[in-house]
Write a structure and sequence with these properties.
Blueprint (H helix, E strand, L loop, with lengths): L11 E4 L9 H14 L6 H6 L5 H12 L5 H14 L8 H10 L5 E4 L4 H10 L8 E3 L13 H9 L7 E5 L2 H9 L3 E4 L4
Parallel strand pairs: 1-2, 1-4, 2-3, 4-5
């Protein structure tokens, strides 16, 4: 297992949630498959997985456009959420990243910047016992902030923890999130390489 480096110059830490702090991606994928097939769509794992980090409704809009479906976005997103909540006990912490949270909890301000819903993010953080460590939590429910792949979600997180973006380190598991972090001028750490 590789050690996660936090360089000396870093003054703030920003974390994605799903797939970064919590091993919830397998559950999210099961929930997506359930919702899409129940709504009459055809399951495409690679397409949905490639969109991780994006908001659910945006994923569904792209799915409809890419595959010529007209799934009800609101209904399908709701079915996905219900499945996810019903099976949430399946989630486990990603220990190498959660260890960073514990290590820096009293040393650096920390934020969550997630494409997930506030309800899911708070549930995930609570399940693994780290919800109290974050000065700010930005989710898909923060409609005034552009989601990933826009860098705005990370820039807003840096602003809320009062740290210059170039002094922030972002922990991510998705290409879209890493691109957003780079475009925000932040140090991006791909936790998939650990």
């Amino acid at each position: 297992m590789k050690i996660i480096e936090v360089p000396e110059y870093i003054k703030g830490l920003i974390f994605d949630c799903d797939g970064t702090l919590v091993d919830s991606m397998p559950l999210h994928m099961k929930a997506w498959e359930h919702a899409i097939t129940q709504a009459g769509g055809v399951w495409n794992y690679d397409f949905i997985f490639s969109k991780k980090g994006m908001q659910g409704k945006d994923i569904l809009a792209l799915y409809n456009k890419s595959f010529g479906f007209d799934l009800d976005v609101e209904y399908t997103a709701r079915v996905k959420q219900e499945y996810f909540h019903k099976h949430c006990a399946e989630m486990k912490p990603i220990d190498t990243v959660v260890d960073i949270v514990h290590q820096y909890a009293s040393r650096l301000p920390m934020a969550i910047a997630s494409g997930g819903s506030r309800e899911n993010v708070l549930l995930s953080l609570k399940l693994i016992g780290i919800e109290e460590y974050f000065a700010t939590i930005i989710t898909a429910d923060d409609k005034d902030v552009q989601p990933k792949p826009s860098p705005e979600i990370f820039l807003e997180a840096a602003k809320r923890i009062n740290v210059d973006p170039k002094l922030c380190q972002v922990f991510e598991d998705g290409d879209i999130g890493l691109e957003a972090a780079r475009n925000a001028g932040m140090l991006g750490t791909d936790i998939r390489e650990l």
